[in-house]
Amino acid sequence: MLETYDAPLAPLTTFRLGGPAARLVTATSDAEVIDVVRAADAAGTPLLVVGGGSNLVIGDKGFEGTALRIATRGFELVGTTLELAAGEVWTDAVARTVEAGLAGIECLAGIPGSAGATPIQNVGAYGQEVSATITEVVAYDRRAGEAVTLTNEECAFAYRHSRFKADPERYVVLRVRFVLEDADGMSAPIKYAETARALGVEPGDRVPVGSARETVLKLRAGKGMVLDPEDHDTWSAGSFFTNPILTDADFAVFHARVKERLGADAEPPAYPAGAGHTKTSAAWLIDKAGFTKGYGGGPARISAKHTLALTNRGAATTEDLLALAREVVAGVREAFGITLVNEPVMVGVEL
User: Fold this and answer.
1) pLDDT (tens digit per residue) in 100-142
2) Integer CA distances (angstroms), 283 to 124, 189, 254, 311, in order
3) How far apart are CA 160 and CA 151, in angstroms?
4) Partner residues linked to 156 by β-bridges
5) Is the pLDDT reported for residue 326 higher than 90?
6) According to DSSP H, which parts of the chain are helical?
7) What is the Cα–Cα distance from 88 to 75, expressed in whole angstroms?
8) Strand 56-58 relative to strand 345-347: parallel, antiparallel, unpaired?
9) Mind listing the pLDDT tens digit for each residue in 58-105?
10) How many CB atoms are closer than 10 A to CB 137?
11) Most CB within 10 Å of its CB: which of 28, 118, 280, 328?
């Protein structure tokens, strides 16, 4: 266990933003993680859990407390059952399951961050979500003072949401367990239209699992969604805003507003999102509100590759980033009456 003080946090995030932590502890075992959390709770010290740092926006003043960096390692694959330690690098874990010829998370390739973060956000992309394959999550329950095992149902997964996100001060994820599919080296059925087009197949078809992974990596790279230290379009948290889910009544009002603003032939993206609800595209809203790729004149700008990513061009502060985010939120609200919600976790700041 490594302990440092007045420790820079920006290098631990994909935004490369934020001030220092009063204390930073790097834990390499579940026991060390639990010890640090217990000690902080007993002392009443604020605690910030850091995994891969791909979903954090840390204020410029930093964090006055203990930042716990989870650097645990563990990859255990038995048949189609997979267990990952929370600190495992997610992209590496996906690659290893694909090498084993197993399906279920291949379209989640290239997503930065750690395995322990995936159930918190119910990470998803290109037609897959981790909730479809997670069977159990082992977490330290700070309220009970003990490690607990939560079933998939108990995790209360929803779109980019879970029990862990709903109660962020209660659980620290230690391990995540999955069940994958042995489809003789083939992928899960391709659900996402863009992926199917890139593969030259129809939605619902299967392809070699390695082909699915490689195609998703290329699609993500084209949008600046694969980490590259030399490419400032990847100095982001990926998608900064979640796709809005509207009631049928709210969608009807939105639909009418779109036609009024963009013309009678304009049609916004619409995807089924459960009974009485429709999901639309945050990226589309941002673009049609006038915030196009590369928007911004300062050190924080919209990605030149994807309107849903806000980026640090190398010299930004967190306040620069938040100013841009607030401008986008206000512009979309004024144009379409929809208030975008940030996907990354805010530490010491808010929109």
Assistant:
1) 999 999 999 999 999 999 999 999 999 999 999 999 999 999 9
2) 16, 25, 15, 14
3) 18
4) none
5) yes
6) 30-43, 90-99, 118-121, 163-166, 193-199, 209-222, 248-262, 282-288, 318-336
7) 7
8) parallel
9) 999 999 999 999 999 999 999 999 999 999 999 999 999 999 999 999
10) 27
11) 118
Residues with a known catalytic role: 160, 239, 343
End-to-end CA distance of the chain: 35
Residue type, 109: A
Structure tokens at 47: 């605690």
Per-residue model confidence as pLDDT tens digits over 211-266 = 999 999 999 999 888 888 889 989 999 999 999 999 999 999 999 999 999 999 99
pTM summary value: 0.90
Q: How far apart are CA 155 and CA 234, in angstroms?
A: 30
Residues 6+ apart with CB under 8 A from 153: none
Which are the contacts of 92, defined by CB distance < 8 A and separation ≥ 6? none
69 with 50: CB under 8 angstroms?
Answer: yes
Q: Rounded distance, CA 286 to CA 289, Å? A: 5
Strand bridging mode 277-279 / 271-272: antiparallel
Nearest to 81 by CA among 149, 170, 182, 171: 182
User: What does the alpha-carbon distance between residue 231 and residue 221 come to, in Å, rounded to a whole number?
Assistant: 10
- Tell which residue, 280, 104, 315, 91, has the closest CA to residue 189: 104
Ramachandran sector of residue 263 (left: φ over 0; alpha: ψ -120 to 50; beta: rest): left
Distance (Å, whole) CA 325 – CA 239: 12
Sheet holding 63-70, edge to edge: 2-8, 20-27, 63-70, 47-50
